[in-house]
Design goal:
Layout (H helix, E strand, L loop, with lengths): L6 H16 L13 H14 L19 H9 L8 H27 L2 H13 L1 H6 L6 H18 L1 H4 L4 H16 L5 H15 L4 H7 L1 H21 L3 H13 L10 H6 L5 H10 L5 H13 L6 H16 L15 H10 L7 H26 L13 H19 L4 H19 L1 H4 L7 H6 L4 E6 L5 H7 L4 E6 L6 H5 L4 E7 L11 E9 L5 H8 L3 H5 E8 L16
Parallel strand pairs: 1-2
Antiparallel strand pairs: 3-5, 4-5
Helix pairs in contact: 1-5, 1-21, 2-3, 3-4, 4-5, 4-7, 4-18, 5-18, 7-9, 9-12, 10-12, 10-17, 16-18, 16-19, 17-18, 19-20, 19-21, 20-21
Length: about 575
């Protein structure tokens, strides 16, 4: 380990990882999940009322979509929506991710006896794309992963003291599980207690009589206490019937209904099959997917010689996999709490892992970096952009891209450095992705102060392609009254300008919209398109990036009288 992963390498990559998770934290284009904007909407509406409960929302059927802990977190970090920004909402998620990484370090250092191995486990987990994607945005995943993982990491750290604890550890586990349920869903009590039971069973040398005598009551204490914490939502909310209908029956029980043909066929084939669940779980590792596969294969080959701690990590993984095959809606995202266990296994086997998994990771990084470099060169030097919409990178961006490519190339050519540089390359790739979109975070992708001032307090219609899309525009046009129309109609300028008094319309790069004589453009910016046809994708692969990936958005004031909003359906809702 001393030769392959030194303290210096660990500290340098740790600094790189911290920078990666903080860089672009306020970006609208940060890798995330579509739930973030609905969550923001619920926080903002609840803050307007001024009460912690009940949660508020203008979206049909989306009010009690998650327990209140994540929304209370948003209320606190944004000071009741008075400091409204993505960074204000997201920094607690990064804090949760950092705490998970820290306790993972302590647990793996304790069980391995090596500080480098503990640091390695932390860095591997942070390098997973799923950790980066779900561990930074304003989502329920970071607190869920932290509170579920904490008791299992405590068992690895304290060992016999935790396993033999009669009341202290079961109470600690129950509180932690309860906070996880209060952040995500009561359904997580099933895999959590199942995994805890397997841990005790292995500790008792697979003796059923011993676990029934000494440990069953501990699992019951943890499970019942966790459910009691979750039940506080029903106790404090003035409308518990809505929670039962929307969250328990709609959000959770509905996931057991057949989605396509019938339950058994859905289990074995299609987009919700168990096989796809396994693939998406492995794919949570992102660029390190094949490193994870090689680790699991090595665990299988060495199954007779695995340590107690390695067996416990595998039991946690198996428990969650078994439980989450039961719902008809299966997703690798539900298995995020087991990704720290995967990272620990990779760190424990790091010295003995074959190079092919790391070389595939380096090749994927080289491909991603080359693609980002090609797109950046195409955008900056194609000449397609107008003078007003000039796509320009700083020198730091080109230095980052060149340095990242050199480091990845060195990792491919020098065997002794392949593993360490593959780990560093994951973070460099994420930084390159964020840096490649920085022009849209500056003047190019935002409305001017004059435009924002001109439309203050006015009704503005904007394109929506998913629920609560207006929360993104609320960051671009603060102080306006936003209403949504179908995003597919954004290029139908004449129809939109004849229907709405102030409307955002789209036009291809290099072309201005044809407007009526009394229409006036009061603002403009560039936006990245979300959906493309097969032909458009083909054209982009041939080098026409800017023409099809981006559009100009114009904010137009028209002579149309404002419609009666009581009869207008807001597509964002």
């Amino acid at each position: 380990m001393r030769g392959l992963f030194s303290y210096r390498s660990a500290l340098l990559i740790l600094l790189l990882g911290v920078f990666t998770y903080l860089y672009g934290l306020d970006s609208r284009f940060a890798p995330k999940n579509g739930d973030e904007y609905p969550y923001m909407h619920i926080v903002r509406m609840t803050a307007q009322v001024g009460n912690w409960l009940p949660l508020q929302s203008e979206m049909d059927g989306i009010k009690n979509t998650k327990p209140p802990l994540i929304f209370w977190q948003g209320l606190a970090s944004s000071h009741w929506a008075s400091q409204w920004s993505l960074a204000s909402l997201r920094w607690p998620s990064v804090l949760y991710t950092g705490l998970t990484a820290f306790f993972l370090f302590l647990a793996v250092r304790r069980l391995s006896g090596k500080t480098q191995t503990g640091l390695l486990a932390t860095l591997v987990w942070l390098s997973f794309f799923a950790t980066y994607r779900y561990g930074r945005p304003f989502l329920a995943d970071p607190p869920e992963v932290f509170w579920i993982s904490l008791p299992f990491m405590a068992l690895l750290y304290w060992g016999k003291g935790a396993f033999e604890s009669k009341f202290f550890f079961p109470l600690l586990a129950g509180i932690c599980f309860g906070l996880a349920l209060f952040a995500k869903s009561f359904a997580y009590i099933a895999p959590a207690t199942f995994a805890l039971g397997l841990y005790y069973w292995r500790w008792r040398q697979w003796s059923i009589p011993k676990i029934l005598t000494h440990d069953l009551y501990k699992v019951c204490i943890a499970g019942l206490l966790a459910l009691a914490v979750f039940a506080l939502w029903f106790a404090f909310d003035p409308n518990p019937e809505a929670i039962w209908k929307e969250f328990v029956l709609g959000e959770n029980a509905g996931k057991f209904a057949a989605r396509n043909s019938n339950y058994v066929l859905d289990l074995l084939r299609g987009g919700d099959s168990i096989w796809l669940l396994l693939l998406t779980t492995l794919a949570n590792a992102g660029l390190f997917t094949f490193v994870l596969i090689s680790t699991l294969w090595q665990c299988w080959r060495e199954r007779r010689f695995l340590s107690l701690e390695e067996v416990l990590l595998l039991l946690l993984i198996v428990a969650f996999l078994i439980v989450f095959t039961l719902p008809s809606q299966r997703s690798g995202r539900y298995l995020l709490p087991i990704m720290p266990a995967f990272a620990a296994l990779i760190a424990l086997h790091w010295e003995r892992l074959p190079l092919w998994g790391f070389r595939i990771a380096l090749l994927l990084q080289m491909l991603a970096l080359s693609l980002l470099l090609w797109i950046g060169i195409n955008l900056q030097f194609s000449g397609l952009m107008e003078d007003l919409f000039t796509w320009t990178y700083s020198y730091c961006h080109w230095i980052l891209m060149a340095g990242s490519l050199v480091i990845v190339l060195v990792g491919l050519l020098r065997r002794n450095h392949s593993k360490t540089l593959a780990l560093a390359g994951c973070f460099l790739t994420y930084c390159a992705l964020t840096s490649s979109l920085t022009p849209l975070e500056a003047k190019l992708g935002r409305y001017s102060v004059e435009t924002i001032t001109q439309v203050q307090g006015k009704d503005v219609w904007i394109p929506c392609d998913y629920r609560a899309k207006d929360e993104e525009y609320r960051l671009l046009l603060p102080g306006t009254k936003l209403h949504g129309y179908l995003a597919k109609d954004a290029a139908e300028v004449s129809k939109l300008t004849s229907s709405y008094p102030i409307v955002a319309v789209h036009a291809p790069l290099g072309a201005k919209p044809e407007l009526c004589d009394s229409c006036q453009i009061v603002g403009q910016r560039m936006e990245m398109r979300a959906r493309h046809s097969d032909e458009e994708i083909k054209q982009m692969l041939q080098g026409h990036i800017g023409k099809y990936l981006f559009v100009n958005e114009y904010l137009v004031v028209t002579p149309v009288i404002a419609p009666d909003l009581s009869n207008v359906k807001d597509v964002c809702r």
